[in-house]
Write a structure and sequence with these properties.
- The chain is 22% helix and 31% strand.
- The protein is α+β, with helices and mostly antiparallel strands.
- An eight-stranded mixed β-sheet has the order 11-12-13-14-15-10-16-17.
- The longest helix has 15 residues.
Length: 318
C-alpha cells in the first residue's frame, strides 16, 4: 500500500504489515512502495527527504509519525465502465497530530452519534498563510464590520449550555438551512464529541453578532462552523467571519487555515481568497480556476447514495 502523490510520499508507521523501503514499480512509474518496518525517521516530526529515481528525477518524501487506521467503505459500482466508488475514512490514534491528518486530505466526521476520532477524505480546501494577504475584495468585505470585537475562548472555558448561546446558534441554522439540518441533539453532539477546541465570539456594544467554532493546533486551524445574526446576511457577515478567522490564523503563526469542503455552486464563494488550494484525492492543487471548474460541474457527478459504513452506523441507532 502506498500513496502515489507527485511530490509527496507517505511513510505510514501504522500500516499492517508495516512498510518502508522505497522500490520503484516500473521504469515509467512514479509510484513507490514501502516494504519492511519504518525506521527511526518515522518517530520524528514530518521530515522531507530527497530521492533520485532511475529517470534522474527528484522526488520528495515526507515521513509522518501517524498510527491512524485508514479504511475504505464501498459506495457504488458501474461494472460496465469498471468504475468503483469508495469513501475513505481514517481513525485517529493517540499521538496522531491534527496537522498531519488534515494535510492528507481528511476532515473530522461529526455525522454519527457516539463516533469520535473519525475523519473522512473529501475535497478539502485550505489557505496557505505564509504569503496570504487580503485582496481587494477581501478588504471591501472586511471594512464592513471592522468595529466588531472578537474574543477567542477555549471550549473548555465556554458555557456551551447557556440558553442564549444555544438559541442563537439553532435559530441561525433553522432560518438559514432548515431545522432538520441542525436539531439541538446534533448541535449538542458536535459540542460534546471533543473535536472543537475554541469558540470565537463577536460582539458590538454587548450585542452578539456571531460565533465561529474552530479546530486548531500549533500549525493549523479549521473554520468548521459559524453562526451569525442573519439581519446582516446581505452585508456578507458570513464571509467577513471567515476572513477574520483566516486573519487570526495568520497572525497566530499558523501554516494553514482550512475552510472545510468546496462542492457545487455553494462552494464557489471560498475561491474569493488568494493562496487557496484544494485536495484532489492525491495531492494539494493550488489552482482556483480548477476548483471553480470542479464546483460548477459537480451536479453532473452527484449520486444519492450512502456508503456501507455510514449505513451500518445509521442502523445501530434505529
Amino acid at each position: 500500500m502506498s500513496h502515489d502523490v507527485p511530490g509527496l510520499i507517505l511513510c505510514h508507521s501504522g500500516l499492517d504489515p508495516p512498510l518502508l523501503n522505497l522500490v520503484e514499480t516500473g521504469p515509467e512509474s512514479s509510484l513507490f512502495l514501502f516494504e519492511e518496518h519504518c525506521d527511526e525517521n518515522c518517530h520524528a516530526p514530518p521530515t522531507e527527504f530527497s530521492l533520485r529515481s532511475n529517470k534522474k528525477e527528484h522526488f520528495h518524501i515526507l515521513c509522518y509519525n501517524l498510527r491512524m487506521k485508514i479504511f475504505n467503505s464501498e459506495l457504488m459500482q458501474d461494472y460496465g465502465t469498471y468504475t468503483f466508488g469508495y469513501t475513505t475514512y481514517a481513525v485517529r490514534e493517540d499521538g496522531d497530530k491534527l496537522a498531519d491528518i488534515y494535510n492528507l486530505g481528511f476532515l473530522p466526521y461529526t455525522g454519527t452519534k457516539g463516533i469520535n476520532n473519525m475523519y473522512y477524505m473529501s475535497r478539502s480546501v485550505r489557505i496557505k498563510l505564509d504569503d496570504w494577504q487580503m485582496n481587494s475584495e477581501n478588504r471591501r468585505i472586511y471594512a464592513k464590520f471592522n468595529d466588531l470585537k472578537s474574543t477567542l475562548i477555549p471550549i473548555t472555558k465556554f458555557d456551551t449550555h447557556d440558553p442564549k448561546f444555544v438559541h442563537f446558534c439553532l435559530h441561525y441554522f433553522g432560518e438559514r438551512f432548515g431545522e432538520r439540518v441542525m436539531p439541538e441533539s446534533r448541535f449538542r453532539q458536535i459540542l460534546d464529541m471533543g473535536v472543537i477546541t475554541d469558540i470565537i465570539e463577536y460582539k458590538k456594544d454587548n450585542e452578539v453578532f456571531g460565533y465561529c467554532f474552530l479546530i486548531q493546533d500549533d500549525q493549523m486551524s479549521h473554520y468548521i462552523y459559524s453562526f451569525y445574526n442573519l439581519e446582516h446576511f446581505s452585508n456578507s457577515l458570513g464571509l467577513w467571519l471567515m476572513t477574520d478567522c483566516i486573519k487570526y490564523a495568520k497572525d497566530d503563526g499558523k501554516k494553514y487555515h482550512y475552510l472545510g469542503t468546496a462542492y457545487g455552486d455553494k462552494g464557489l464563494y471560498k475561491t474569493n481568497f488568494d493562496q487557496l488550494e484544494f485536495w484532489n484525492g492525491e495531492r494539494w492543487v493550488d489552482s482556483r480556476d480548477q476548483l471553480r471548474d470542479r464546483c460548477r460541474s459537480d451536479a453532473g457527478r452527484q449520486v444519492h447514495l450512502v456508503d456501507e459504513w455510514k449505513q451500518r452506523q445509521a442502523e445501530r441507532f434505529q
